[in-house]
């Protein structure tokens, strides 16, 4: 196998590799590998891991690969072993043409971290082409008067091989008239010259046929032949001569087809046909014949095809001027192709990383190389990206650039970037190339869920059904994917006495809140708790919000009458003097409602009355007052039913029954209670009692004086010691009553009731108030105090 690394070169490579690893490799020698053309595919070239002194598996771990400018897949690289193999047969002539040496540069790119090693594959020529003459027969017209020693330049053979395998020698078949002289052009090419050894005699030898053989320097050598046909002519003693033997011109590569390159001119001193000159290419190559054409009469050289500076920079043409007698002269035209800026820059992307994790520090997004096939300023380039993007280009070696992030990226601000890399050359006019790439930003869980409100207020009507949906909380997360999936939960209450787990529950997926049991406004009017929202990122992020639940009152409590009490004991009887004026305050019905708001607004109305129109009830205060003056015709006993109603929907109500006795005065000695009076009325007629009363007027007067004295003494004793009035035991025990604002009236007052226990007729006596002429406030109104009935509240 001809593909092997020369030992001396390997030693040099090791030395250069050490320098490469120690310092920046911008000036290091590239690794060189040699292979002969036409070598079989799969041939082992080298082991890059060994040559670069890298550890086993390091090439694979660092993301290595082979790249080249021309993107030619002539190499096969195994990053696991580091072996570099030939991927296809190479034809040196097709790859490099006449250029020697034939060097195919390539690079070894390591991505993690970014590093580039330069290398070259030198393709050695083998002798696989024979010399070829373009014409199978060469015709020469030689005057018989030509003196020995004259030379005749012959067509050169073409050999695609280079170096030692290129054309090296010419031979001619054996004869006595001519021999071959080898002429070197100075550019590595040899041309054959036919040298006349003796004078020709047309009459003796009118023509000659000789074989010209071209030999290359290969081993074994290859050859090619052509036939030389020599015609001996009569004398034509003037040869055409060019004005200049060498023409040098410069032609821009963008010159249009058909444009004039140069005008050559020759002259011949002969006359007639011997002085008529015809111009033609002298054994031009196929490439020249395709590119140029010459006017045979004028000698003007024109373009036949477009020029390309990047392919060929110089053309060398030999133009022959031949007269009618067969004599010819030659000149050389050297055409230098000048470069114009006709090639836009090229961008070769080597690697691209997308997506990029947000919040990452400076990150390499892509690696690429730029080139321009022009030369000079036309090949100088500048590279840029948009200024407003958070990316920057960093130049490396060999026109390599890395695209890196300026700062950590935020996916929530922008999830995708469209980057335009612009490469502009410095030619005139300037040409540019734009390459668009799209870089996406992958999400990192850097945003906690955010509630739409910091605090939520929910209202729930009491007596709700269990599992009732009472409201929702909502939180959003600016992240994406699992990082944006929000889960809701109830947080432990700050008040340990609040049984939150039995009151509400929350749907973990959508944040809907449900009441677990029926709520009672009278037991729990409001409560608050905190809910949490956590995403499913790693680590998970969370936030909190306050939820305040207000229980809305429902009209589920009927009014409750505090006074007078309806507890099944003896009914309350209110005493009203017959002398009372209209509007006299009989009593006040006091009621409360367990509800709130308008459900607790109470109104009072007189539902039933023994004598309608005699009494009235104030709707808002519950005060029972006389509606007119009392008369002797009004009944003594009256039964009133008062309805207490709230303002709920539907309204609830309660009723209370009042008994009212009309008396002539508070000092009336005989005043039976409703039940007792009813019993006596059934036992004795009223007239019996009147007679008895009239008969005992005198005795009662005395008894009254004694009682009055006793009461006065009792009052003095109580004022001194705080004691009450002592009376005998009986159906109505006498005591001192203190009525506070919680009772029927809103201001405290006192009065005495003393009963005679030994009275068979249960007669009683009203005494004057302890604080005479006491006034008190009842629902904003001043009324005169009158003694009221003994009742269960302490009156």
TrEMBL record:
InterPro entries: Cadherin-like_dom, Cadherin-like_sf, Cadherin_C, Cadherin_CS, Cadherin_N, Protocadherin/Cadherin-CA. Gene3D superfamilies: Cadherins. The keyword Transmembrane applies. PROSITE patterns: CADHERIN_1 (PS00232), CADHERIN_2 (PS50268). One of its GO terms (biological process) is homophilic cell adhesion via plasma membrane adhesion molecules. The keyword Transmembrane applies. One of its GO terms (cellular component) is plasma membrane. Keywords: Calcium, Cell adhesion, Glycoprotein, Membrane, Repeat, Signal, Transmembrane, Transmembrane helix. Its main location: membrane. It is found in: Membrane. Residues 134-242, 243-347, 348-451, 452-561, 576-671 form the Cadherin domain. GO terms for molecular function: calcium ion binding. SMART domains: CA. The chain crosses the membrane at residues 688-711. It is a single-pass membrane protein. This is Protocadherin beta-7.
């Amino acid at each position: 196998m001809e593909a092997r690394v020369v030992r001396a070169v390997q030693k040099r490579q090791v030395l250069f590799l050490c320098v490469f690893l120690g310092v920046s490799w911008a000036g290091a020698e590239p690794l060189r590998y040699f292979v002969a053309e036409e070598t079989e595919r799969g041939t082992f070239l080298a082991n890059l891991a060994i040559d670069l002194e890298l550890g086993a598996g390091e090439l694979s771990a660092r993301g290595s690969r082979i790249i080249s400018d021309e993107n030619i897949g002539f190499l096969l690289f195994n990053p696991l072993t580091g072996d570099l193999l030939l991927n296809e047969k190479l034809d040196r002539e097709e790859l490099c043409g006449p250029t020697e040496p034939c060097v195919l540069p390539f690079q070894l790119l390591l991505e993690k971290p970014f590093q580039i090693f330069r290398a070259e594959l030198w393709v050695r020529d083998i002798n696989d082409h024979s010399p070829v003459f373009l014409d199978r027969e060469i015709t020469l017209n030689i005057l018989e008067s030509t003196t020995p020693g004259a030379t005749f330049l012959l067509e050169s053979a073409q050999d695609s091989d280079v170096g030692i395998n290129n054309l090296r020698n010419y031979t001619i078949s054996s004869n006595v008239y001519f021999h071959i002289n080898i002429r070197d052009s100075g550019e590595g090419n040899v041309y054959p010259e036919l040298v006349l050894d003796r004078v020709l005699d047309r009459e003796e030898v009118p023509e000659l046929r000789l074989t010209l053989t071209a030999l290359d320097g290969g081993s074994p050598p290859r050859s090619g032949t052509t036939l030389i046909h020599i015609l001996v002519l009569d004398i034509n003693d003037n040869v055409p001569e060019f004005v200049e033997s060498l023409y040098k011109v410069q032609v821009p590569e963008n010159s249009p087809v058909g444009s004039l390159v140069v005008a050559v001119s020759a002259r011949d001193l002969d006359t007639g046909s011997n002085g008529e000159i015809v111009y033609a290419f002298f054994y031009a190559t196929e490439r020249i014949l395709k590119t140029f054409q010459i006017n045979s009469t004028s000698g003007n050289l024109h373009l036949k095809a477009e020029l390309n500076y990047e392919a060929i920079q110089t053309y060398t043409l030999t133009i022959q001027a031949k007269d009618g007698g067969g004599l010819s002269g030659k000149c050389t035209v050297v055409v230098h192709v000048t470069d114009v800026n006709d090639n836009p820059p090229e961008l070769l992307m080597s690697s691209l990383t997308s997506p990029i994790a947000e919040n990452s520090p400076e990150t390499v997004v892509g690696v690429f190389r730029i080139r321009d096939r022009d030369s000079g300023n036309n090949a100088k380039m500048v590279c840029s990206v948009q200024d407003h993007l958070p990316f920057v280009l960093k130049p490396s070696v060999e026109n390599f650039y890395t695209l890196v992030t300026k700062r950590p990226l935020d996916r929530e601000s922008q999830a995708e970037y469209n980057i335009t890399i612009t490469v502009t050359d410095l030619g005139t006019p300037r040409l540019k190339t734009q390459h668009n790439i799209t870089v996406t930003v992958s999400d990192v869980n850097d945003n906690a869920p955010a509630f739409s409100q910091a605090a939520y207020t929910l209202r729930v009507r009491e007596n709700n059904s269990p599992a009732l949906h009472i409201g929702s909380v909502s939180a959003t997360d600016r992240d994406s994917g699992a990082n944006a999936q929000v889960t809701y939960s109830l947080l432990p209450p700050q008040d340990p006495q609040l049984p939150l787990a039995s009151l509400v529950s929350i749907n973990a997926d959508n944040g809907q809140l449900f009441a677990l049991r029926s709520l009672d406004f009278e037991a729990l009017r409001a409560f608050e708790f905190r809910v949490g929202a956590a995403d499913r990122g790693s680590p998970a992020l969370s936030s909190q919000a306050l939820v305040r639940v207000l229980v809305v009152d429902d009209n589920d409590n009927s009014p409750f009458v505090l006074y007078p009490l309806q507890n099944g004991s003896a009914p309350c009887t209110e005493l009203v003097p017959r002398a009372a004026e209209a509007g006299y305050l009989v009593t006040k019905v006091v009621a409360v409602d367990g509800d709130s708001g308008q459900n607790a607004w109470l109104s009072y109305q007189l539902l039933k009355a023994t004598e309608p129109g005699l009494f009235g009830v104030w709707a808002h205060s519950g005060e029972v007052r006389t509606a007119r003056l009392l008369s002797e015709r009004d009944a003594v006993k009256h039964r009133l039913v008062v309805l207490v109603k709230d303002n709920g929907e539907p309204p609830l109500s309660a009723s209370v029954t009042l008994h009212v006795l009309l008396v002539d005065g508070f000092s009336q000695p005989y005043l039976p209670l409703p039940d007792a009076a009813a019993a006596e009325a059934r036992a004795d007629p009223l007239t019996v009692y009147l007679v008895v009363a009239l008969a005992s007027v005198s005795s009662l007067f005395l008894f009254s004086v004694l009682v009055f004295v006793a009461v006065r003494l009792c009052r003095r004793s109580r004022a001194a010691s705080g004691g009450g009035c002592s009376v005998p035991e009986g159906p109505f025990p006498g005591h001192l009553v203190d009525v506070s604002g919680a009772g029927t009236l809103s201001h405290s007052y006192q009065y005495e009731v003393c009963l005679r226990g030994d009275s068979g007729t249960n007669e009683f006596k009203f005494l004057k108030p302890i604080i005479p002429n006491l006034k008190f406030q009842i629902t904003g109104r001043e009324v005169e105090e009158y003694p009221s009935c003994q009742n269960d509240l302490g009156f």
